[in-house]
């Protein structure tokens, strides 16, 4: 008896989901899937580090040991 209710109900819910998917396709909901994700992240200005050197983070290869390289 319960299968007479559950089978049509599951088919109906599947058709509703399929209809929602096709509606989203027709209304261009999937045109730019990554654009919205990147628009949410605000761009920040890089910190002003001009004129400051940090020798232990990024050594300059030209005035150290030129034969060794990186």
Q: What spatial form do the alpha-carbon principal axes imply?
A: elongated
Elements, N to C (H/E): HH
Overall strand count = 0
Oligomer: single chain
- Proportion of beta-strand residues: under 5%
Low-confidence parts: none
Task: Specify Rg, calculated over alpha carbons.
Answer: 29 Å
| Tally of helical segments | 2
Kindly report the average pLDDT value: 76
> Cα distance, first to last residue?
75 Å
Helix content: 40-55%
Query: Structural class from helices and strands?
Result: mainly alpha
Largest sheet: none
Feature tags:
mainly alpha; 43% helix
Q: Explain this structure to me?
A:
The chain has helices at residues 3-26, 35-40. It is an all-alpha fold and 70 residues long. It has a domain at 1-29. The protein starts with a helix and ends in a 30-residue tail after the last helix. The model has no long low-confidence stretch (mean pLDDT 76).
Summarize it.
By secondary structure, the chain is an all-alpha fold. Helix content is 43%, strand content 0%.
Q: Layout of SSEs?
A:
Elements: H1 3-26, H2 35-40
């Amino acid at each position: 008896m319960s299968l007479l209710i559950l089978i049509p109900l599951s088919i109906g819910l599947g058709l509703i989901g399929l209809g929602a998917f096709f509606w989203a396709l027709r209304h261009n909901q999937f045109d730019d899937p990554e654009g919205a994700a990147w628009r949410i992240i605000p761009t920040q200005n890089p910190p002003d580090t001009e004129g400051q050197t940090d020798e232990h983070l990024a050594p300059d290869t030209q005035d150290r040991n030129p034969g060794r390289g990186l």
